[in-house]
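quick one before i forget lol
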Amino acid sequence: MPWADDLSSCVTDVIASRPADPIGQLAHLLSQPSARPDWEETASAYAVRHNLEQRLGAALDAAGLTVTQDAPPDAIDRLCRELLACAQPQLAGPSTALLHEVALLKREVERLHDDRLAAPQPRSMATSGGTVLALAVGGSSDVIGALAWARACGYERLVLVQPGSPPRGAASTSLELQPVPAAAPGTPAPGGSFFDNGSMVAYLLSLDATQLVAGYYLVQPKDDGGGKGFSRASLEGTTAALVQALAAHECCALVGLDFGGDVALPDKKTQRGACRERGPFTPRLPSPTHPARTSPVPRPYPAPS
């Protein structure tokens, strides 16, 4: 039987090699046929195949031993150490290019670490620079939050839009996008009476004429439900006004923010959106490419083309 022939041949090899653990060596040779010695190979061919002469000579030189000198007491120990070192497989070291890349990566990590410690900056959410329209969704002081959020997103230029009701006592009932000029430098901030006018937009524009390129007050008269809400015509007019501002300044996105969230809360009596009862009313722009977000953090929407 073939397995019996293999066993007999391996037993012969084990006996010829005289190992300290003959049973273990027998199992090794049976499981790893390539480990069995080639008895048909001559001694000289075996020495040449393993480069024994050169490797032994290198070990002797490393140990400091020569056949013409008296051997020191530890000659065998020194030779054994060098032979074992020579027998260890030599692993190829990293290439010069790899070492260079590692050094560059280490320096970059150190630079980023130092920069973060020196002046940590919030990560920009904007995919690139550009002009963004910052919309105060709830009107009034929301324009301050919309400005802060747009800046945090990393846009280079900003257009502010604050919607709100007509000024008290005004007879106008038409929707109008009113340009707001910047206030004179050093003008103090308005008090709490800017909910129906563009005084806060003017003040904010005066703080940074480079980044804040324009500002508007969007007049939204309540023309539905006896002066309590906004009609479909108001919705369409508001949409058209925002699209007009986006196109005029070549905005790449719109960022809206509502601090109180009152435009989304239902009315207790009718369960209709509170934007029907309270204002200002800010519609969704046509064809946003982002899905609705359920978290309270607003997100920028690409400007419609």
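fyi The longest helix spans residues 96-118.
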